[in-house]
Structure to design on (276 residues):
């Protein structure tokens, strides 16, 4: 049991199992008190009870379905009003492996509500409070499909691309205001997310599946190293540095008031005429 001074409180979404539960374990071990958010209250209470005993930290549970507007608003209010909160881990999310044309649009809208809308609302609740105190960290769990959307369902990939883009923007806006932003891009991870999505991770090649413990430990190591983007399964970080450098260089070449010469009409062949 720990009696060490608290580093503040970390609010973790999707904390009842998988990646979120491992974050809860690791952050409690690092001296954070916790607020655990998820739909499954029984699981939350089980995780909380274990961590209270093992770490001596204060652990509160906040059962909430973040795809429900009223429950999302309640959670956002906690982030906005509790001055002890020093970290937000936006982990809650769902996935899909169904091809876009075969996917249920209602399920896609639910995915957007959780992966995009909820994450955005919670970020907008936490960020001003952290800026006012000039301290705090927001960890956004994205995915490698955010930069490789062809791998799985297109809407899922698009939601994670949003998380990456939002994180880049937040890093740009808040870095000089004392707020840390980290985007974490897991690859295939051994959690029930895959089974819910329709493809249990046990059916994937084992050499590509990382344990949630290894994933979170790598992500926290990346946070300690000051990384803005952490990709646990990417062994050569120089690949990401080159990718990111190319992206930033390209973004500096968009400032022209006239279209590129290749789009001038006299350079485009006449379209074939349809016989009448």
């Amino acid at each position: 049991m720990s009696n060490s001074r608290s580093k503040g409180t970390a609010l973790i979404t999707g904390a009842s199992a998988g990646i979120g539960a491992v974050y809860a374990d690791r952050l409690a071990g690092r001296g954070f008190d916790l607020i655990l958010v998820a739909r499954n209250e029984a699981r939350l209470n089980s995780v909380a009870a274990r961590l209270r005993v093992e770490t001596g930290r204060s652990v509160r549970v906040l059962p909430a379905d973040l795809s429900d507007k009223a429950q999302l608003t309640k959670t956002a209010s906690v982030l906005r009003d509790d001055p002890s909160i020093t970290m937000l881990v936006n982990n809650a999310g769902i996935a899909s492996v169904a091809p876009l044309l075969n996917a249920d649009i209602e399920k896609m809208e639910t995915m957007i509500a959780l992966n995009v809308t909820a994450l955005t609302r919670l970020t907008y609740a936490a960020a001003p409070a952290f800026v006012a105190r000039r301290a705090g960290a927001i960890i956004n769990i994205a995915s490698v499909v955010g930069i490789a959307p062809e791998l799985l369902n297109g809407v899922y990939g698009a939601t994670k691309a949003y998380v990456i883009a939002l994180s880049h923007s937040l890093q740009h806006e808040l870095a000089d205001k004392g707020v840390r932003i980290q985007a974490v891009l897991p690859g295939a991870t051994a959690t029930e997310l895959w089974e819910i999505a329709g493809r249990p991770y046990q059916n994937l090649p084992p050499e590509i599946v990382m344990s949630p413990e290894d994933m979170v430990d790598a992500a926290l190591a990346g946070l300690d190293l000051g990384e803005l983007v952490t990709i646990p399964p990417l062994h050569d970080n120089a690949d990401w540095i080159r990718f990111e450098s190319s992206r930033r260089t390209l973004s500096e070449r968009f400032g022209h008031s006239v279209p590129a010469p290749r789009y001038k009409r006299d350079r485009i062949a006449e379209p074939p005429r349809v016989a009448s």
Q: What stands out?
A: DSSP finds eight helices and seven strands in the chain.
